[in-house]
Design a protein that fits this description.
By secondary structure, the chain is mainly alpha-helical. The protein is 55% helix and 6% strand. It has 15 helices and five strands. The strands form two sheets. It has a three-stranded parallel sheet with strand order 1-2-3. A two-stranded parallel ribbon has the order 4-5. Strand 1, helix 1 and strand 2 form a beta-alpha-beta unit. It is globular and about 80 Å long. The protein starts with a strand and ends in a 5-residue tail after the last helix. The protein binds tryptophan (TRP). The site of tryptophan has 14 residues, from strand 1 and helix 9.
Length: 354
């Protein structure tokens, strides 16, 4: 029996942080043993929001190296770059014929990013009309590119081209996955075929991890002062952790824990031993805790995770031949599948040789 295909993509818009590691990467490392895993770097998707060609290229290299350094095994999982699979671009064109501009415009991530591109705040009245007015009637010289609008089409094609069964994505991507399923169903029923399989959100068996940021609220993301990168130098990483937001400290025994402190405890739980976590929780409960000590401990425990990854990343980045080999193998696997899908789709849609 062949294994189910698991597909996941990441936009190359910078380096990976601890949230990416615990939320995705460390789980991929386990998945690769049990599934036919394909992990790709969505450089075409990154073009919808990034404009600096050199930064994009560096980010693609960086993410590849960090994936490998974190334990993705290119002999087990296919790692590829989206643009190395040109079949996807043609499928994207073909699929767009079955996608409505209305449903794309109603996508939450599009609304968000479009407003950001135009520098518009979400108004009180977040109705469809208000949004359309802003996008179509915007009298600024900024524009929302059409690639951003059709982002979900490309993502659907990434998934459907590989005939992926499982797609591990974060909450923010569930709407895109739902659209993918809808496009697959629509295509199949329009032509009366069973071309595409409807992919599903991959549910990890362990409970979802929360990786909070260092700025006191919310999850770790790329914003300033909030995240530690896997390739942060120890000095930089320690400084970031020491600057993490805290509060004035517990004033009486067994006080409730405020969000910034709860976040530090969450990070410690991810990276440290249960004994050390308990030690600091006890110290919090009896008011003897010193946040400086907590942060020092946290920084050292994070470094135990990130240091080996940072070092291996640097080595891999020096080995161009190795990186090229990994991507060539990945592209071969991805292209074999995508070109088969493309051939079938062309035929189904009537693009046939005379
Ligand atoms: N949109 C995803 C993100 O921003 C990245 C992505 C592109 C993706 N294509 C995909 C994820 C296909 C899973 C499958 O995180």
């Amino acid at each position: 029996m062949s294994k189910d295909i698991v597909l996941s993509g990441i936009r190359p818009t910078g380096n990976l942080h601890l949230g990416n590691y615990y939320g995705a990467l460390s789980k991929f490392v386990k998945l690769q043993n049990d599934y036919d895993c394909r992990f790709f770097i969505a450089d075409l998707h990154a073009l919808t929001t990034s404009t600096d060609p050199d930064a994009l290229h560096q980010s693609v290299r960086g993410i590849l190296a960090q994936y490998l350094a974190a334990g993705i095994d290119p002999e087990k999982a296919a790692i590829f770059v989206q643009s190395d699979v040109p079949e996807l671009s043609e499928l994207y064109l073909l699929m767009n014929m079955h996608v409505g501009i209305g449903e794309l415009m109603r996508t939450a991530s599009f609304k968000d990013k479009a407003r950001k591109a135009l520098g518009i705040k979400t108004p009180e009245n977040d109705s469809e009309e208000a949004f359309e007015q802003q996008i179509i009637g915007a009298s600024t010289n900024k524009r929302v590119n059409a690639g951003l609008l059709t982002y979900p089409t490309l993502m659907a094609v990434d998934i459907l081209a590989q005939k992926a069964r499982w797609v591990p994505v974060g909450k923010d991507q569930l709407q895109h996955l739902e659209l993918t399923r809808r496009f697959a169903r629509r295509f199949n029923s329009f032509y009366g075929v069973e071309e595409f399989i409807e992919p599903e959100d991959f549910q990890f068996t362990d409970k979802p991890v929360k990786v909070p940021g260092l700025d006191g609220s919310g999850k770790m993301g790329k914003s300033e002062g909030n995240c530690v990168y896997l390739i942060d130098e120890p000095k930089v990483l320690r400084k970031k952790v020491m600057r993490a937001v805290t509060d004035e400290g517990p004033q009486e025994p067994n006080s409730p824990v405020s969000e910034p402190i709860a976040n530090l405890f969450s990070l410690l739980e991810l990276t440290s031993t249960p004994e050390i976590v308990q030690q600091f929780k006890d110290a919090y409960a009896d008011c003897s805790i010193r946040y400086g000590d907590l942060k020092k401990q946290l920084a050292e425990d994070i470094l135990k995770v990130t240091d080996p990854i940072r070092e291996r990343t640097a080595e891999i980045l020096k080995d161009e031949a190795y990186m090229r080999k990994v991507l060539a193998r990945g592209a071969d696997i991805a292209r074999a599948q995508a070109s088969e899908t493309l051939r079938e789709v062309r035929h189904i849609m009537g693009i046939r040789k005379i």
